[in-house]
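DEPOSITED CHAIN:
***
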Amino acid sequence: MEGIESGSRTRKRVVVIGGGLAAKLLQFHADVTLIDPKEYFEITWASLRSMVEEPKFAERTVINHKSYLKQGRVVTSPAINITESDVMTEDGSKTRQEKLSHYQAGMNLNPDIFFM
């Protein structure tokens, strides 16, 4: 499977499942597709603060994926089947991949380590 040409180098096709922050970082190093059942990234650790401070703060704890993922694609559907080369989602879409990433909060997001 060939990657995407970017200048003089080939960019790997990377599928990120449920890791908006990882997708944001990797979009500058790879052809990124973010698969998430929600259309937004939720800063869950800030939700408690929004309960005790002004309600306007709560609006800043939810960020639409498309507002920060400018160089990638977003598939809003749960992943239901993952193979070595594809990820199938509940809505029937199939995304080809060379690298698969499932990130959780607090994981190392260094793209140099990811592409070693």
